[in-house]
Amino acid sequence: MASSNFQLRVPEILFTTQLQAKVRTFDGVILVTNTIDKLSGDLQGLKYPLDCYKSIDASVEQEVVLVHAPDFPGARVIFAPTGPLNRDYDDVRRFSDAAAIGIKRALKAGMVKPILVCPPEEFFQEAPLVTLLGALHALYVPLEIRERYPEKATKVDYLGVWASSVEEGKKLVLLSSAVERGRTVCRDIGGSDPERMAAPKVADYVQSIFSNSVVSVSVISDLTTLEEEYPCLAAVNRCAKDVERHQARVIELQYTGEGANEKTLMLVGKGVTYDTGGADIKAGGIMAGMHRDKCGAAAVAGFFEVLSILKPKGIKVIGAMAMVRNSVGSDCYVADELITSRAQRRIRVGNTDAEGRMAMVDLLCSMKEKAIEDYVPNHFELFTIATLTGHAIRAVGFNYSIIMDNGPAQWSKTAQELQVAAHEVADPFEISTIRREDYDFHKGKSEYEEILQCNNQPSSATPRGHQSPAAFLIMASGLDKHGIDSEKPLRYSHIDIAGSSGPFPGIPTGSPVAALTAKYVLNRI
Fold first, then answer.
1. At what angle do helices 513-520 and 414-424 cross, to 10 degrees?
2. What CATH number does the domain containing 217 carry?
3. Is the per-residue pLDDT at 5 higher than 60?
């Protein structure tokens, strides 16, 4: 196993408050803003070479340009314009998008020590951070490449960032490094192929990452324990368990911040290392890309990496990664089976391609049990995070996570608050509502079962196809006994990241690591 430092090879970030050519640390400037007219103060000098270029090329402020600038590092400036920022539909993602384009142009120009410049923005307070994160995303190198070709482990020697003050520079470096390390963990696990990140290897990776850190890790691999404590996950694992390298793992993580514990977060991530569809096999070429079905669990691990670096105070976080492969073969679980969940709910399997909800439900039940055992009103927040449904993409498109609250979470405005925090750091969310039809959909259809796991249609062809799985998770885990009508209500939210996890082929986004950091960490460091 490679060392954790090698695995998390994130570009070193340096900040400066000066941009003169004598600052030889850098070999080129990347300017990210909407117009050169707002360049003033220490950045005033950037305006002259760009104005000169604008006199011969009207595309300045419309598309990326590279100009000669002898008074600045590397004697060159790349201007990556954001485009207009004042329309109803413009948001802070303009900065991350522009930064990624600028970095790619810098690499083509041969820069290996570029420095980002994002002037202060009146309406987008986190624009400099978002710009830096956009650049870092473009500089990510996949784990398999880093391990196989160490000489290609980084695309730059280091990355610079201009800051208006030393204090601002230190803050930018700290936050961007932490979030990017978290997103790197998320991308490594979520984006790597089904063998490199089969369940046992995910466990090895996570244990290596958090060795000698403030995050504790435990791994459950014993098949008997899995069958007894996580029967729904064990059903999915039944076909994969006879192949040792594919056997399931439940990975548990815990972080406890300094000071009085004001809040406990409980996160369960879907970690299906490969989804064949099982007996309801994915046909017609749609199996390709199903190694990305572990991005929910990957996000949980990524968030814990952020916690390990920023060490927020007054918060405890418990995570569980449901790592399992949905294989097809003579021992795979099939539609019509009756499986009793950890919460003692009889579930009728409707479609083995709905394995993600099966993998998570018992872990969610385990979290519920911990919360009830140590119950304090309004103290616990439970989440499931999963690339769960194609319907989520149909509903809101790519690039957006969807969050759904149960009654107690809705009363406390969990979804709305997370949406606002996520918007500030370019990790956007849409909000959906779990309604009575979703619960009715999953009620047992005969005396045999209490709960129907799924119908036999794809989620994308099922009305309310991304909302009803949240109702299933609530029902099958026993959380329906802890709604607003309970003496011990528990706040629970389901996050579907099928659209926001990233393109295939392509690089995973690391969503919703930045959003969770913005909501639960930044105000505690």
1. 110
2. 3.40.630.10
3. no
CATH number of the domain where residue 15 is located: 3.40.220.10
For residue 273, the SS3 value is: strand
Which residue shows structure tokens 């459950």?
220
CA 286 to mean position of chain CA atoms: 23
CB 496 within 8 A of CB 392: yes
417 and 460 both lie in a single domain: yes
H-only helix segments in 116-252 = 127-138, 143-148, 166-191, 199-209, 223-229, 231-237
Q: Which residues contact 451 (CB under 8 A, 6 or more apart)?
A: 345, 346, 347, 348, 442, 443, 444, 472, 475, 476
User: Which residue intervals of 20-165 are DSSP H helices?
Assistant: 47-54, 93-108, 127-138, 143-148
Q: Is 149 exposed, middle or buried (0-12, 13-18, 19+ CB in 10 A)?
A: exposed
Q: How many independent structural domains does the chain possess?
A: 2
**Rounded to the nearest 10 degrees, what angle do helices 127-138 and 166-191 cross at?**
40
Amino acid at 357: R
User: Strands 346-348, 401-405: parallel, antiparallel or unpaired by DSSP?
Assistant: unpaired
Indicate the pTM of the whole model: 0.97
**Is the domain of 137 the same as that of 96?**
yes
Show which residues are catalytic: 282, 357
Preceding peptide of 505 cis, ω within 30°: yes
Q: Tens digit of pLDDT for each residue in 369-398?
A: 999 999 999 999 999 999 999 999 999 999
Residue written as token pair 């099939």: 334
- Dihedral (CA of 508, 299, 242, 239) sign: negative
Cα–Cα distances (Å) from 65 to 37, 61, 370, 379, in that order, read 16, 9, 56, 51
CB 520 within 8 A of CB 315: yes
Considering only 43-47, 101-105, 314-318, 470-474, which range has the smallest mean pLDDT?
Answer: 43-47
Write the Ramachandran bin of 10: left for phi over 0, alpha for psi from -120 to 50, otherwise beta. beta
Which ranges in 230-352 belong to alpha helices (H)? Answer: 231-237, 295-310
Residue 185 lies in a domain: no
Proportion of the chain above pLDDT 90, given as a percent: 93
Q: How many CB atoms lie within 10 A of CB 150?
A: 12
Q: What share of the chain is helix, strand, coil (3-state, %, to 5)?
A: 40, 20, 40
Q: CA-CA distances (angstroms) from residue 244 to 44, 199, 328, 356?
A: 62, 10, 15, 21
Question: Which tokens in the block code for residue 461?
Answer: 């062809």
**Strand, helix or coil at 275?**
strand
Q: Quote the distance between the C-alpha of residue 313 and its chain's center.
A: 22
Task: Choose among 429, 431, 435: nearest CA to 407.
Answer: 435
CA torsion sign, 520 to 497 to 422 to 425?
positive
